[in-house]
């Protein structure tokens, strides 16, 4: 029994230590699988024979360039739809509210005429304060979201026309006045930024593009010219589409010109106000309420379409890190910088052109179209005058592409020449009322020529601003805010002068045009003589998280060599910024405060600590201290 048990233990031990026959096969299979897996990994990680990194990079940046073109077309189309809806609805609303029968039958004692006056006041007066809040709004929301929000405010104005009351129409008109300057400043900034991005995607191999440095002077001018031309070609079609409600809905309800112009004695340069003697009943029959609701619903749909275009199709104007940098300079600085940019003599000398740019568009749509066009041809031909003007603006905006080959002053000089000749002609043009057959052709020709001047003026000014500040992407919103704020001032002046004699209006226009041309020539002469201009210094972004206090001097992962390189780089950048961007007064103020600020800066504290550490590591210092201790 003992022997048998001993044999079983021996067999058990042998079974425990001797591997079965299949075990060797499994180990061999595992080794083969590991070799196979390693081979697959090497094949996966090794450079692919059919993969061309340079070709893939080229395809990537081609998609980026197509995205920029899509952004420009989307922004242009969205702005065109917004203004088509706004101008079309406003025109139809003012004509309906002007008719005495419509007011009495539909709204009796509501006081629509008084509501219209206050509504126009809200639209024209509110933009005066636009310089105070526009840069803050654009930096806070971002350029794309500012365009989206402004288009939403225009959609709100459309929606209030479903229920026409004082507490709906007037607040929405004030909201539009608040949104005008931010919308246009964002659009100008956006189109110029797209030109800069397109240049970066075309020249992505250049060192200054890869390191995100300032663009070379004049590098993206050709793209600015093309994109601004495309924008205005599309946008000016808004004057055409704005007349669709007038042409297809309201025209069939209007009286003939003999009834409307029965008490009008004269037109053109001899009159005062808009159209003295114009009949207060302009409708033959009142349009059905359901018809007006259907028209407003269509316009509301297009307003929402514009919002969706801005939201979905328009990409961001800046990289996320750039937007953070733009906001991080401090809201007080953002508020002050538009005023400080007026130190630049280029902007100061262009201000008369900004004002004239606002004058001439409002005069074409209100002054010429009413006091010359409707006064002679009747209200039924108003849509024709505006459509011809809009088509002319759109077609002739393509002429600004000539700046690709010609000097930049050609566009503004051409538009000023056309308008100057037309203003002199209009000063001498006094027409009899109700003569559509005789004067329809000449008035349409004047509309075409005025559209030519408007196209050259608008594209010329926007392109010139983009070219002057093409390398200063952090200043574009301030520059375009100043431009459109002066335009808003001009719109307010046009609103105030509505009761002046026509010759006084034309004289103001002509004097402003001549002053604008003179100031522009002075600016170009100073630039050709290389007279330095003064740009305000934009503070560096301040990135500090208050809760955790990630301070620069507490970075424990930073080596001494990195610190010294960073210090030298900051020193060089400080030396470059001060002489370029600070004026004499800023230099004096900076010199007085430099010692105090420098002593408290993280860099100065770090250098002091390093110098103190090096002093104690010096062998001579250590030896002297040891002798002092021994002597003591």
**How many individual β-strands?**
2
> Mean pLDDT, as a whole number?
81
Low-confidence stretches: 14-19, 547-567, 573-625, 627-632
How large is the radius of gyration? 35 Å
**N-end to C-end Cα span:** 93 Å
The amount of beta strand, in percent, is under 5%
Shape: globular
Number of helices: 26
The H-and-E topology, N to C, reads as HHHHHHHHHHHHHEHHHHHHEHHHHHHH
Helix- and strand-based class?
Answer: mainly alpha
Strand order of the largest sheet: 1-2
The percent of residues in helical segments reads over 70%
Task: Explain what the structure shows.
By secondary structure, the chain is an all-alpha fold. It is 74% helix and 1% strand. The chain has helices at residues 2-17, 21-45, 53-98, 100-107, 112-125, 130-141, 143-159, 166-202, 207-210, 221-235, 238-241, 244-250, 257-260, 289-313, 320-327, 331-341, 345-377, 382-396, 409-427, 436-468, 476-496, 502-528, 560-581, 584-600, 602-617, 619-631, and strands at 267-268, 430-431. A two-stranded antiparallel ribbon has the order 1-2. Helix 7 (143-159) runs antiparallel to helix 14 (289-313), helix 18 runs parallel beside helix 20 and helix 19 (409-427) packs antiparallel against helix 22 (502-528). The longest helix has 46 residues, at 53-98. It starts with a helix and ends with a helix.
């Amino acid at each position: 029994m003992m022997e048998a048990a001993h044999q079983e233990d021996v067999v058990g031990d042998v079974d425990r230590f001797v591997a079965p026959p299949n075990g060797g096969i499994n180990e061999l299979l595992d080794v083969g699988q590991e070799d196979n897996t390693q081979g697959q990994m090497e094949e996966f990680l090794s450079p692919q024979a059919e993969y061309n990194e340079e070709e893939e990079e080229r395809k990537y940046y081609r998609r980026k360039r197509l995205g920029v073109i899509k952004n420009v077309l989307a922004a242009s189309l969205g702005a065109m739809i917004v203004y088509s809806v706004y101008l079309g609805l406003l025109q139809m609303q003012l004509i309906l509210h002007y008719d005495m029968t419509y007011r009495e039958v539909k709204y009796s004692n509501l006081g629509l005429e008084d509501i219209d006056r206050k509504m126009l006041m809200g639209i024209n007066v509110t933009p005066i304060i636009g310089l105070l809040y526009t840069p803050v709004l654009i930096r806070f929301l971002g350029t794309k979201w500012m365009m989206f929000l402004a288009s939403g405010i225009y959609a709100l104005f459309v929606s209030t026309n479903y229920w026409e009351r004082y507490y709906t129409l007037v607040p929405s008109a004030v909201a539009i006045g608040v949104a005008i300057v931010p919308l246009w400043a964002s659009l100008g900034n956006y189109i110029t930024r797209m030109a800069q991005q397109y240049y970066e995607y075309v020249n992505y191999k250049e060192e200054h593009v890869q390191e995100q440095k300032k663009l070379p002077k004049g590098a993206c001018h050709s793209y600015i010219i093309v994109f601004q031309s495309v924008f205005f070609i599309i946008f000016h079609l808004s004057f055409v589409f704005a007349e669709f409600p007038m042409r297809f809905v309201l025209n069939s309800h209007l009286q003939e010109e003999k009834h409307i112009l029965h008490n009008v004695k004269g037109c053109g340069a001899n009159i005062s106000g808009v159209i003295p003697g114009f009949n207060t009943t302009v409708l033959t029959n009142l349009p059905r309420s359901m018809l007006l609701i259907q028209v407003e619903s269509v316009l509301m749909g297009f307003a929402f379409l514009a919002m969706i275009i801005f939201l979905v199709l328009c990409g961001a104007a800046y990289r996320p890190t750039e937007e953070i940098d733009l906001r991080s300079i401090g809201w007080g600085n953002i508020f002050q910088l538009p005023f400080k940019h007026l130190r630049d003599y280029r902007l100061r000398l262009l201000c008369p052109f900004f004002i004239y740019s606002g004058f001439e568009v409002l005069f074409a749509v209100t002054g010429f179209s009413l006091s010359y066009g409707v006064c002679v041809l009747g209200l039924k031909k108003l849509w024709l005058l505006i459509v011809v003007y809009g088509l002319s603006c759109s077609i002739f905006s393509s002429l600004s592409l000539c700046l690709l080959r010609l000097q930049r002053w050609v566009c503004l000089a051409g538009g000023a020449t056309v308008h100057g000749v037309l203003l002199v002609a209009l000063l001498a043009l006094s027409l009899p009322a109700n003569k559509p057959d005789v004067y329809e052709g000449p008035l349409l020709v004047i509309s075409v020529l005025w559209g030519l001047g408007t196209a050259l003026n608008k594209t010329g000014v926007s392109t010139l601003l983009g070219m002057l500040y093409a390398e200063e992407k952090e200043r574009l919103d301030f520059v375009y805010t100043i431009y459109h704020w002066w335009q808003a001032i001009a719109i307010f002046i046009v609103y105030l002068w509505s009761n002046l004699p026509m010759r006084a209006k034309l004289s103001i226009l002509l004097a402003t045009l001549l002053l604008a041309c003179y100031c522009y020539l002075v600016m170009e002469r100073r630039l050709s003589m290389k007279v330095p201009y003064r740009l305000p210094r934009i503070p560096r972004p301040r990135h500090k998280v208050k809760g955790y206090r990630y301070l620069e001097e507490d970075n424990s992962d930073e080596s001494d060599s990195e610190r010294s390189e960073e210090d030298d780089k900051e020193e060089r950048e400080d030396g470059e910024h001060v002489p370029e961007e600070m004026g004499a007064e800023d230099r004096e103020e900076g010199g007085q405060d430099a010692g105090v600020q420098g002593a408290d800066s993280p860099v100065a504290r770090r250098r002091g600590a390093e110098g103190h550490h090096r002093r104690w590591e010096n062998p001579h210092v250590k030896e002297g201290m040891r002798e002092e201790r021994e002597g003591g």
